[in-house]
């Protein structure tokens, strides 16, 4: 069984080779992104394993099917980059990793909050230059602050519990309330109430047509002045250009992003020797109250092992005539 992994990095090779010891699949690792120009590289592979910024449009899926691909095994939870109706028409099942380590993403979210609040990047750079002044480094106590969590699935639920442990008041928005979180004293509210009343807003919902640009110019205006916004979900949950006006006016006090709407072709690669071509991202990075990380929230040893194990387990189930963790539209 041949599996071609696109957008693979050294850490993918390590985790997948370790997980493959119990399977014995033929793994082919490609650093290139999957798109219409590279789909032919998968010719002869029964299984194609893409990542979050690979392109699985109709033309790509058609090329893959022509080349012999019979299964799309996503090594991610999200699947908004897949043309599911086309995959169904071609008879290409799509499977995914619905959960790997919710703690990895939730803990990275907390790291962004703490780093923004206590101005850690600025403090770190100062002390390395011999500047030990505390001017401009004042933060705030998390205890007693209201944290709004949009999306209370596995990641959102872990994050909510962590913030409750800090002594925060946690309120949630999700069309499917989690009774366990309610038993812990957390409250579900409408999105407008959550945005207007939260000191910190963190996005953990999937990207759908309903949630695309959930945070936009209008919703930013309804947020509590000087609030903190964190996104470790999907980049397109936020209308990114709208953030610049909110940061310039001071309406938005802090911004932490691990995902970016136009990250494809930018994140996961080293562009340090080139001018940054994305003007919106360049402007965001110029603000002292903004931290952007390059989609690394998932990147823990435990999460990588779980992703590889589940992905190859999905392939093994398909090989045995079953479908595990199938995506349907």
Automatic annotation (TrEMBL):
InterPro entries: D-isomer_2_OHA_DH_cat_dom (IPR006139), D-isomer_DH_CS (IPR029753), D-isomer_DH_CS1 (IPR029752), D-isomer_DH_NAD-bd (IPR006140), D-LDH-like (IPR058205), NAD(P)-bd_dom_sf (IPR036291). Keywords: NAD, Oxidoreductase. One of its GO terms (molecular function) is NAD binding. SUPFAM superfamilies: Formate/glycerate dehydrogenase catalytic domain-like, NAD(P)-binding Rossmann-fold domains. Residues 110-297 form the D-isomer specific 2-hydroxyacid dehydrogenase NAD-binding domain. Residues 5-327 form the D-isomer specific 2-hydroxyacid dehydrogenase catalytic domain. Belongs to the D-isomer specific 2-hydroxyacid dehydrogenase family. PANTHER family: 2-HYDROXYACID DEHYDROGENASE HOMOLOG 1-RELATED. This is 2-hydroxyacid dehydrogenase.
């Amino acid at each position: 069984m041949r599996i071609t992994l696109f957008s693979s990095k050294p850490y993918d090779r390590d985790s997948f080779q370790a997980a493959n010891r119990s399977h014995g699949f033929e793994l082919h690792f490609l650093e290139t992104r999957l798109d219409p120009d590279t789909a032919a590289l998968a010719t002869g592979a029964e299984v194609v394993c893409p990542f979050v910024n690979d392109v699985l449009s109709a033309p790509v899926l058609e090329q893959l099917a022509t080349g012999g691909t019979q299964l799309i095994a996503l090594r991610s939870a999200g699947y908004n980059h897949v043309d599911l109706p086309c995959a169904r028409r071609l008879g290409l099942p799509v499977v995914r990793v619905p959960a790997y380590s919710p703690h990895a993403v939730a803990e990275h979210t907390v790291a962004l909050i703490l780093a923004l609040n206590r101005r850690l990047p600025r403090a770190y750079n100062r002390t390395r230059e011999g500047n030990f002044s505390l001017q401009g480094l004042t933060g705030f106590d998390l205890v007693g602050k209201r944290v709004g969590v949009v999306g209370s699935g596995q990641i959102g639920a872990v994050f909510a519990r962590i913030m409750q442990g800090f002594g925060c008041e946690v309120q949630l928005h999700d069309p499917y309330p989690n009774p366990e979180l309610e038993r812990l004293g957390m409250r579900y509210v409408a999105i407008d109430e959550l945005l207007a009343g939260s000191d910190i807003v963190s996005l953990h919902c999937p990207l759908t047509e309903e949630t695309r640009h959930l945070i936009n110019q209008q919703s930013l205006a309804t947020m509590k002045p000087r609030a903190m916004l964190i996104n470790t979900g999907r980049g397109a949950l936020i209308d990114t250009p709208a953030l610049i006006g909110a940061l310039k006016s001071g309406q938005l006090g802090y911004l932490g992003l691990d995902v970016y709407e136009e990250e494809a072709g930018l994140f996961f690669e080293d562009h340090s020797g080139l001018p940054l071509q994305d003007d919106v991202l360049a402007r965001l990075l110029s603000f002292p109250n903004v931290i952007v990380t390059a989609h690394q929230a998932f990147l823990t040893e435990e999460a990588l092992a779980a992703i590889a194990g589940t992905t190859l387990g999905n392939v093994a189930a398909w090989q045995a005539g079953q479908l595990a963790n199938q995506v349907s539209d």
